[in-house]
Amino acid sequence: MLxxxxxxxxxxxxxxxxxxxxxxxxxxxxxxxxxSPVMPKSRTVTSDADGDFxxxxxxxxxxxxxxxxxxxxxxxVKTRVLLDQRxxxxxxxxxxxxxxxxxxxAVFGQQVEVVGGGxxxxxxxxxxxxxxxxxxxxxxxxMKLLPGVQVSQDAVRxxxxxxxxxxxxxxxxxxxxxxxxxxxxxxxxSSQDIEQVAVERGGARxxxxxxxxxxxxxxxxKSGTNEFKGSVNYKFQPANLRAETVDGVRxxxxxxxxxxxxxxxxxxxxxxxxxxxxxxxxxxxxxxxAYGPTKxxxxxxxEYFGKLTYAVTEDILLNASYxxxxxxxxxxxxxxxEADSVSSGEKSNQDIITFDGSWIISDNTTFTFxxxxxxxxxxxxxxxxxxxxxxxxxxLDLAQLDQMGYFTVPNLDPDNASYDNDLAxxxxxxxxxxxNGERIGxxxxxxxxxxxxxSFYREGFEMALEHNFDVGPTSHQLHVGYQWSEGTxxxxxxxxGWGAISYVGGEETTPDGDPIYFQAYTEQMSLVDESGxxxxxxxxxxxxxxxxxxxxxxxxxxxFNVGFLFSQDTxxxxxxxxNSNNYSGFETxxxxxxxxxxxxxxxxxxxxxxxTWAYNGEDTVxxxxxxxxxxxxxxxxxxxxxxxxxRQLDVWWDEDGNYLGNQGRRGSxxxxxxxxxxxxxxxxxxxxxxxxxxxxxxxxxxxxYREGSHFWEDVWNWARSDEGCYGDFDGDGINEHCVPAEIExxxxxxxxxxxxxxxxxxxxxxxxxMDGAYTKYWEMSLEAEWYGERSYLNASYVYSExxxxxxxxxxxxxxDLNLFIGSSSYADDYGQYTWxxxxxxxxxxxxxxxxxxxxxxxxxxxNVGAFxxxxxxxxxxxxxxxxxxxxxxxxxxxxxxxxxxTGSHWQMDLNYTxxxxxxTDYTVKFSADIFNLFDRQTGYNPQPSVxxxxxxxxxxRWSPRRVQLSLGVDF
Length: 971
Known about the structure:
By secondary structure, this protein is mostly beta strands. Residues about 1-10 and about 100-115 have low confidence and may be disordered.
């Protein structure tokens, strides 16, 4: 199961095998019928002249194969089919010893890899393993079980596995749920619905449209059967069962999860259904602030999932599913010196629709398709909306500042003669908080300042045709596939009233020289003009076409894989339209969609070449070369022209609240692309071997190397020759840090940028390939899996190195966020270029990574599961902006990247589940999970700023020990 090979883009697996009359004679014309509880109708094929047979596009599950010869000999065997995997069976056609006997065939990885190109590094884990282990409730929690994938506590970014945390791709039932433009996992399907999870870490074939710079993860949801089944479960993690943090703080947050599912037949042997509910709740009693009592923290989510499986005929199978989720939260953030009204909330809606099918045209030809529609609509909102609408020229009502936006109450500055302390005192008397009968400034009143309306959509369609045929002594499995998808972001950022309002007190002046007393940071989209119109939301999209062709060729003991994936990506921005009479080819047109940049087919030809040698018929050695052009990019929005008109504004008023004017704050704007860019690329080489030890143990060892190149970023057009030298690295006051001479000689990225800007405006920053940017990753991996009669064990160890000079995991002080890919802090200013001490060890480097997990079924209808992990600490380096002549330390290294490392981390998680049979058809289940049993609160994410008093101190720690209890009923 662990060492199998991806076979297709659909949510299925396959069975292949050979039928023999005796040890040396293949059996032709044998009828093979496959049946399973998860398949509404059985499927039947006939073995060919060589005794070979193939059953493609099967729903993952346990299958019974019934083999019948023309003279009446019948055999039955059982085998498992796993998601995106191929099971291999070999059957000798001799009569069963007794009628009705059934042989159970254990399918191990080395056998699977013999068939069809086992040079892939892939794994699959079924629900029987998932349910027996201490795992959380959502898709993200399953990542810790995947061999070679780091265990991570990040809530937004993904785990590292040969690339950055934004290099992975994620799918649910084959639907790409990776966040468009950001490459993170936004979808949160409940793990109760997941029947199997599969991961492809490397050695990809041109099957499945895999372009991931990290790992590609897919899951298959549960389906109905001919038997009515259901379950109801309640899990809770009380605050008093969580250990104190190392700082002595005990959690006051309560977690609970309600899950339920029901499935069965609508039409026996033809139409099955599955439906579920998932309802997580997080709550906490918020403490009283300086302004008095506050509302409690509450986050609730309701998620519903429904799925239909319809066998039109034995050869045509259709699946349709719909998942919808709504999350609402309030009281999510509030400071000690803030009034209850300024707290923030959240609203989000998520919908996933999928429709897929397979048609077995003949024993040798299969057609599959899938349509999907994914939507995630998020809204970061104030819990209290002020009644004020921001308008150009409108006055500020000083008597109702708490109704105008978020107002920061001033403090007095008696030593400052240019500061109006009298008016400040009046504001403190009105809006300050009470401290022993005295009004105090420095607090916050009104409503949360901003409204962040950000929605993501992805629509896609794919289809594939597979055909098996023989040419001389070789057999071929030809796969041809096409995929189209469009990922879109719709972004609107507005202010609650005037947004964040502060008191300036006359210390500053407008460009016209008028003293400023009040200033607001206001989103331009919230301001309306005299006609009542405002700046439209920014819509950005990326359209992707992928075409793949792959041939798996079997010859004697060898399997050769030859394939190519061809891709085309087109970025669409907003704010321009074509004008062939202009030098740029465009003219400004706010709100208009335009084609920003296209990466052509010829620039993204990704070869997939592999060979497997089954030297003794079962055990193998393999090698694979694969090239990937990662699809995730933020440039459709980051370089969009309408970012010019969606900035944050400084708005000013005088001492009486009269409007003085506004100006745009420094922000990003539309960007031109450098000519003839080479798309980002990852080259990969994998060499490995698989071996079975008896009937129960399988092992795999491999060495894998990946190199990333051709990274794109936004960069100042003249950065290569920006005065040549800058910075003071030894404190002698001499600028000695220089742009490398070979890079300086290249000149500006776009020589004629000034002509573009004279015509249509835009930024002095451009989208360009970073000179000499690269990453290198290599790993040595050892994996083993053991199946016992009532036990299971999986162990893996990976030694790796991840180095380079451009680190997507290290672009911000707070990296666990949706951060731009291709428009990050890299190359924004002095100290942030690839040549500024960036060469070294990447943040995601974990040289040693060890995992072991498994379960044992006890004699008294109970199960014990355990998960143990050890991994190296996180690389980091000191940051100091002053040596580059800058006040900000962000991503300005004072030493080579990764010069330091935090402590390593290990932890053990345990699970105990007890089943009680009640009546005939009911089972009561009690479960207890203990996470981080030994309370290893290892620190990571250290403070890197050398001028901070907390330099080197961890800003994050692994979660303390916690106990989760569960009570449920299966029926």
